[in-house]
Specification:
- The protein has 10 helices and 6 strands.
- With 220 residues, it is α+β, with helices and mostly antiparallel strands.
- The protein has one domain.
- The strands form 2 sheets. A 4-stranded mixed sheet has the order 3-2-1-6. A two-stranded antiparallel sheet has the order 4-5.
- It is globular, with a radius of gyration of 17 Å.
- It starts with 9 loop residues before the first helix and ends with a helix.
């Protein structure tokens, strides 16, 4: 894996320090990632975090972490400001490794025997709160620019590499491509489907230079 180099400005350092303290209090903490617009832009934005833990946590602990992330967003971001078209914090923030494994094995996508499809995202409460939505956001988070929080770098690198292999396998399966297909074409199909779906309606990748370069440097 080629590590992405970020400009850690004062705001980002504050966010990292906050997350390091929070994660040190979490039972079964493995690693966390800060991802999304907060690491791709110098502008104030919402703060996207995924915290990976060894096993499911108690509801009180989950609520504590969710409230802490909301507080983080209020302090250093553009505020929680969630709408009905956003994935709830309770779904997207704390990820047990068993759920991460499901995401890596592409269980968030439909399978008809050996053929897979990428269903359109449904922007309703039922879908956005579902495990399927959770699994799909995990893959896009791990394979876009991110900053690791924690000391378990070996585990982090292992899952990131596996996630990149998974998204390549997904595209090759869905569009019946040979694995030797050029990276440029695979990236094109990761960013936009042939039927015109992009970003949140598709696989979560923005059509920006920083995203395309990150995908190109890490896909094999």
């Amino acid at each position: 894996m080629i590590e992405y180099k970020f400009c850690k400005n004062f705001r980002i350092n504050n966010i990292i320090n906050y997350l390091e303290k929070l994660c040190s209090e979490i039972k079964g903490f493995q690693f966390a990632i800060l991802y999304g617009s907060s690491v791709c832009s110098q502008k104030e934005s919402d703060i996207d975090v995924k915290i990976f833990v060894s096993s499911p946590i108690e509801i009180d602990d989950l609520n504590y972490i969710v409230n802490a992330i909301k507080d983080l967003s209020n302090k250093f971001g553009s505020g929680p400001g969630q709408t009905s078209k956003d994935v709830p914090y309770e779904i997207k923030t704390v990820i047990p490794l068993c759920i991460l494994e499901k995401a890596i094995s592409l269980q968030g996508f439909k399978r008809d025997q050996k053929k897979m499809t990428i269903p359109k995202i449904q922007f309703n409460k039922k879908f956005l709160s579902s495990e399927t939505c959770q699994l799909r956001t995990i893959l896009s988070a791990l394979t876009t620019p991110n900053i690791m929080i924690g000391n378990n770098k070996e585990l982090y690198i292992n899952y990131v590499n596996r996630a990149f292999n998974s998204i390549k396998s997904l595209i090759c399966n869905v569009y019946e491509l040979d694995p030797t297909t050029s990276k440029d074409y695979i990236i094109k199909l990761l960013i936009c489907s042939p039927d015109g779906r992009k970003y949140k309606e598709y696989l979560g990748y923005n059509d920006t230079t920083i995203i395309k370069d990150h995908l190109f440097n890490n896909l094999h």
